[in-house]
UniProtKB/TrEMBL annotation:
This is Uridylate kinase. Belongs to the adenylate kinase family. UMP-CMP kinase subfamily. ATP binds at G30, A31, G32, K33, G34, T35, R147, A192. The lineage of its organism: Eukaryota, Fungi, Dikarya, Ascomycota, Pezizomycotina. Residues 50-80 are annotated as: NMPbind. Its cofactor is Mg(2+). Keywords: ATP-binding, Cytoplasm, Kinase, Nucleotide-binding, Nucleus, Pyrimidine biosynthesis, Transferase. Monomer. Catalyzes the phosphorylation of pyrimidine nucleoside monophosphates at the expense of ATP. Plays an important role in de novo pyrimidine nucleotide biosynthesis. Has preference for UMP and dUMP as phosphate acceptors, but can also use CMP, dCMP and AMP. Residues 146-156 are annotated as: LID. It comes from Thermothelomyces thermophilus (strain ATCC 42464 / BCRC 31852 / DSM 1799) (Sporotrichum thermophile). A ribonucleoside 5'-phosphate binds at R56, E78, I79, V80, G109, F110, P111, R112, Q116, R153, R164. The keyword Transmembrane helix does not apply. It catalyses: UMP + ATP = UDP + ADP.
Amino acid sequence: MPPTTANTSGTTPAFSPADVTVLFVLGGPGAGKGTQCSRLVRDYHFKHLSAGDLLRAEQDRPGSQYGQLIRDCIKNGEIVPMEVTVALLENAMRETIDTTGTKKFLIDGFPRKMDQAVKFEEVVCPARLVLFYDCPEAEMERRLLERGKTSGRADDNAESIRKRFRTFVETSMPVVDAYDREGRVVKVDATATPDQVYAATKEKLKQALGDKF
Ligand code: C5P
Ligand code: MG
């Protein structure tokens, strides 16, 4: 009998999900993904990789051929071509595993578009689940404008925020919905305070992954 596999391309992912744990962390801009990831890192020893942070670092890296492309996409709230982001994530995972031995990853702000999801699971590593932070737009906008006072981010302004929300609804929510249809989404209401959201996060992850996730 031929081996059965979800991977129809014949590509073997770089990392086996039996060895490496990947949780995708999604939610609209300002939903609190980074805040919650910091707490999970503190208590459960995940490595936190933010796709947005990796893109901003690549944008600023002297000699990067993608600097201007990334800068334009971020300013306009558009999705950077997936090859760039998938490669940055794979490199960061490999470096983390090689230098620290850590094999548990929170991949924050990714996948934001269906092609990123498919490519990553095909060539890098199938994800265990999607942790989705659900937050009303008005609350996210309030948080982003507040953060914009000190973040120095080129996209924490009213115009970029509007574009980021549109991309989230049109391009990123379909990714969450697709994973949800597969029963792979853990949804957390992100409206409350960070402490309250974190308590709910731990509870739901325990339900999905067991006590010592
Ligand atoms: O997650 P964060 O808000 O830091 O992302 C900032 C920007 O980086 C996004 O608005 C988008 O332009 C880009 N990005 C992307 N693909 C991702 C994550 C971020 O293109 N998976
Ligand atoms: Mg973030």
